C-alpha cells in the first residue's frame, strides 16, 4: 500500500538516499543537484568516468553524503555491483532516478537492427535492470520508495528518424505501468517524465540546423527545455507530495503534443 502522508509542499528529501543513473551530466546531474539541495544523499551512477568528481562537487556544495559509481546498465554484474556499493555506503535506497540514454537517428528504411537493439538494450532493458534491482532492495527494506524514469515525448507520438528511440521509450512506458501495478503493494511509486527536446549533449546531437529551428517553431513555448526544468518534475515525483501518482508518464514538452 502507498501510504498517505500529510502534504506540506516542502518537497523535502532530508534523510533519504537516492540513486541517479545518468547522474554525471545533463538531466541526471541537474536531478542529483536538486535532490541534494532538498537534503538527500546521492549516488552518482553513470557509464562516464567522472562520477566521483561530480559526486564530490555536489557533496561540497550541499553538505550531503555522496558516492560516484561507474556502471554499465547493459551488464547485470555491473548493476549488481553498483547497487551493493550504494547499499554499503548509504545503508538503504529510498529513491531511484533512472535516466541512462542512447539515441542514434535514422529513417526506418535505413536503420540497422543492431542500432535498434542498442536503443532497447540501454533505454528499456537497461533501465528495467536497475529498477528491478532497486525495487527488490526497497521491498527488503519494507519502507516503500520512489522510482522515476526519463521517457520521452517520442514514446507516444511519431517523430521523423526516431524509430529505434521510440521503440525503446514506448517499451519503457509499458514497463513503468506494469511495475507500478505490481509494486504498489510494497509502497513503491513508479512513474516517468517525458521531456521534449532538452538542451543537453544528446539534444544537440539530434537537433541541429534547420531541423532544430523547425522543431522549435512547432513548440508553443518556442524553445527547448532546460535540464533543471526536467529535474524539477523528477523531484516532484520523488517526494511524498506525489504519493497518489503512480504508473504515469508526466509530459514536460512546452505544449508540443497539444496538437
Give a topology summary.
Blueprint: E1 17-21, H1 26-37, E2 41-46, H2 51-62, E3 66-70, H3 76-90, E4 95-98, H4 113-141, E5 145-150, H5 163-183, E6 188-195, H6 201-206, H7 209-218, H8 227-237, E7 249-252
Parallel strand pairs: 1-2, 1-4, 2-3, 4-5, 5-6, 6-7
Helix pairs in contact: 1-2, 1-8, 3-4, 4-5
Task: Give a brief outline of the structure.
By secondary structure, the protein is α/β, with parallel strands linked by helices.
Distance between the termini: 37 Å
Mean pLDDT across residues: 96
Helix content: 40-55%
Q: Helix- and strand-based class? A: alpha/beta
How can the largest sheet be summarized?
7 strands, parallel
Computed over alpha carbons, the radius of gyration is 17 Å
> How do the helices and strands follow one another from N- to C-terminus?
EHEHEHEHEHEHHHE
Amino acid at each position: 500500500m502507498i501510504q498517505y502522508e500529510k502534504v506540506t509542499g516542502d518537497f523535502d528529501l532530508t534523510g533519504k538516499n537516492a540513486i541517479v543513473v545518468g547522474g554525471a551530466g545533463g538531466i541526471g546531474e541537474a536531478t542529483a543537484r536538486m535532490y541534494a539541495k532538498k537534503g538527500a544523499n546521492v549516488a552518482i551512477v553513470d557509464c562516464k568516468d567522472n562520477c566521483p568528481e561530480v559526486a564530490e562537487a555536489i557533496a561540497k556544495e550541499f553538505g550531503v553524503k555522496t558516492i560516484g559509481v561507474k556502471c554499465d546498465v547493459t551488464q547485470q554484474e555491473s548493476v549488481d555491483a553498483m547497487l551493493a556499493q550504494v547499499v554499503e555506503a548509504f545503508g538503504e535506497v529510498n529513491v531511484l532516478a533512472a535516466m541512462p540514454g542512447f539515441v542514434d537517428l535514422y529513417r526506418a528504411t535505413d536503420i540497422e537492427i543492431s542500432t535498434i537493439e542498442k536503443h532497447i538494450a540501454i533505454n528499456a532493458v537497461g533501465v528495467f535492470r536497475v529498477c528491478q534491482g532497486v525495487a527488490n532492495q526497497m521491498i527488503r527494506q519494507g519502507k516503500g520508495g520512489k522510482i522515476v524514469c526519463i521517457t520521452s515525448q517520442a514514446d507516444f507520438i511519431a517523430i521523423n528518424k526516431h524509430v529505434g528511440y521510440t521503440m525503446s521509450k514506448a517499451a519503457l512506458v509499458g514497463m513503468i505501468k506494469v511495475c507500478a501495478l505490481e509494486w504498489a503493494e510494497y509502497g513503491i511509486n513508479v512513474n516517468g517524465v517525458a521531456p521534449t527536446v532538452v538542451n543537453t549533449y544528446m539534444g544537440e546531437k539530434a537537433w541541429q540546423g534547420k531541423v532544430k529551428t523547425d522543431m522549435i517553431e512547432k513548440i508553443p513555448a518556442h524553445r527547448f527545455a532546460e535540464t533543471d526544468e526536467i529535474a524539477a518534475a523528477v523531484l516532484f515525483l520523488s517526494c511524498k507530495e506525489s504519493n497518489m501518482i503512480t504508473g504515469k508518464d508526466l509530459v514536460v514538452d512546452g505544449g508540443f503534443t497539444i496538437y
